[in-house]
Design a protein that fits this description.
By secondary structure, this protein is α+β, with helices and mostly antiparallel strands. The protein contains three helices and nine strands. The strands form three sheets. The chain has a five-stranded antiparallel β-sheet. It has a two-stranded antiparallel sheet with strand order 4-7.
C-alpha cells in the first residue's frame, strides 16, 4: 500500500469525468489499496480516485471508524429534502470551507474487487460523503454546488490562497 499525494484544484484530473472500471486487474487492486491507505488519516472522510491522479470510478471512505471503498458507484436514491450540516471542505481545496447544501439522504450502489454488490447509504455525513465523492468522479468539486454569492466569495478566497502559495 502507498500513501498518495492529493491532487489540488487546478489539476485537470479533478475536472475530468472518471471512466468506469471494466476489469479488476492489478492496477485496480493497487488503486483500492492506495485509496484505503490515503483515506486512513484523521480529518479525512472520503477520497475519490481522481484526487490521487487516477481517472477511474472508485472512492474510499473513513466515517465513524468505518473504512471502506466502492467501485463504479452510482447514486440510485436521494431525498428531496436538503440539509445544511455547516461548512463543507475538500482535500483538493485545502483550507477552504463553505456552507453547501446536500440531500439529507443518499444511497449509492457499486461493487467490490470481487464483483460483489456494495451498497452505501445514510443521512447527514453519509449523504454528504456519497454526493461529494460521486461529484468528484463526475469531474465536479463542491465549489460548483455553492450558492452564487457564497461561490463568488469562495473563488475570491481561493485566488488569494493560491497567490499566497505562489
Amino acid at each position: 500500500m502507498a500513501m498518495r499525494d492529493i491532487r489540488t484544484i487546478g489539476d485537470p484530473v479533478l475536472r475530468t469525468p472518471c471512466e468506469p472500471i471494466t476489469e479488476v486487474d492489478d492496477r485496480v487492486r493497487q488503486l483500492v489499496e492506495d485509496l484505503l491507505e490515503t483515506v486512513d488519516h484523521d480529518g479525512r472522510a472520503g477520497l475519490a480516485a481522481n484526487q490521487i491522479g487516477v481517472s477511474l470510478k472508485a472512492f474510499s471512505w473513513n466515517i465513524d471508524g468505518e473504512i471502506g471503498y466502492i467501485l463504479n458507484p452510482s447514486i440510485v436514491e436521494v431525498s428531496d429534502e436538503l440539509q445544511d450540516l455547516g461548512e463543507e471542505g475538500c482535500l483538493s481545496v485545502p483550507g477552504l470551507w463553505y456552507p453547501c447544501e446536500r440531500p439529507a439522504y443518499a444511497k449509492a450502489i457499486g461493487t467490490d474487487l470481487d464483483g460483489g454488490e456494495v451498497v452505501i447509504e445514510g443521512e447527514e455525513i453519509w449523504a454528504r460523503l456519497i454526493n461529494h465523492e460521486c461529484d468528484h468522479l463526475d469531474g465536479k468539486l463542491y465549489l460548483d454546488r455553492l450558492k452564487k454569492d457564497v461561490r463568488r466569495r469562495a473563488m475570491r478566497e481561493l485566488r488569494e490562497s493560491l497567490e499566497e502559495r505562489g
